[in-house]
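Module 6 notes. Inverse folding takes a fixed backbone as the condition and produces residue identities as the prediction. Think of it as a translation problem where the source language is geometry and the target language is the twenty amino acids. Below is one complete input and output pair. Work through it position by position during the lab.
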């Protein structure tokens, strides 16, 4: 039902925010970072150097936003080419991934909100993000811990 020519938005309930992180060893991602570093970007110089030393990893994020407004709906997206610090403690890696994922989950939610659903993007940014490290990524973190 419309009131004053405006369609009411549909209120939704967020059921789960999650991200699965996988190693992203595609040569194009590293080549792009190296090109930025070669062009003088100091932050990319640092990331490339850390990656070459094994102090950083490149990951792909598979994002999932589960919502319900009656029937549940699952929105997904994949983003690649994220650099994270490799740490001896897996929860430190997971924390970085959760922070990266929050921004992309907000983008995913904004797309959903544009379709007329009422989703508080600010509140979404404060919600817990479930993080899963894919086995090969977890193995790299464990190798880092064993080498320390």
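Target side of the pair, the amino acids:
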């Amino acid at each position: 039902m419309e009131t004053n020519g405006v369609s009411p938005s549909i209120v939704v309930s967020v059921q789960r925010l999650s991200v699965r992180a996988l190693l992203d060893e595609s040569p194009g991602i590293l080549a792009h970072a190296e090109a930025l570093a070669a062009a003088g970007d100091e932050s990319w110089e640092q990331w490339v150097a850390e990656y070459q030393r094994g102090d950083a990893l490149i990951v792909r994020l598979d994002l999932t936003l589960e919502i319900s407004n009656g029937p549940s709906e699952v929105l997904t997206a994949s983003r690649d080419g994220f650099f994270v610090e490799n740490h001896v403690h897996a929860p430190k890696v997971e924390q970085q991934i959760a922070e990266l994922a929050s921004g992309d989950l907000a983008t995913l939610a904004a797309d959903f909100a544009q379709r007329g659903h009422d989703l508080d993007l600010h509140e979404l940014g404060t919600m817990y993000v479930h993080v899963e490290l894919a086995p090969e990524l977890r193995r790299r973190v464990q190798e880092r811990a064993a080498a320390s």
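Reference fact for the lab report: The CA atoms of residues 88 and 108 lie 31 Å apart.
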